[in-house]
Amino acid sequence: MQPTATVLVYSDDSNTRAQVRLATGRRPAPDVPLVEFIECATPAAVIKELDKGGIDVCVLDGEAVPMGGMGVCRQIKDEIFNCPPALVLIGRPQDAWLATWSRADAAVTLPVDPVEFAASLASLLRRRNLLSA
């Protein structure tokens, strides 16, 4: 059985969550594990899932309402022990400084570009050392 990686996707917009799933496919790169998704539409659901453990990477929608992914990112980086890497989806390239403020490990712009997104997600999965699992 092949190893899998668990990716949490936070967005209040089901279309954004679908873009992330489609851009990832079964796996974002040949050298990383297959991906399973946990989808969350509220910040409380994100915290609940992270408290359970087992999340390898978080993908957070910076344009989510009522709390954007950058605010959620900063909160989880402060509050979750061994917080998984976070990829923030930003509305404009000029918002990259906000992603840095949020302590995101990577940022890509919306709408999701499949090639850019898959490369960023694969990089975070590699960093999470899943290859040795």
UniProtKB/TrEMBL annotation:
SUPFAM superfamilies reported for this sequence: CheY-like
Record-annotated Response regulatory domain positions: 6-125
Residue numbers of 4-aspartylphosphate PTMs: D61
Keyword presence, Phosphoprotein: yes
Domain of life (superkingdom): Bacteria
Keywords: Phosphoprotein
Record bears the keyword Phosphoprotein: yes
GO biological process terms held by the UniProt record: phosphorelay signal transduction system
Name this protein carries in UniProt: Response regulatory domain-containing protein
Organism: Streptomyces sp. NBC_01393
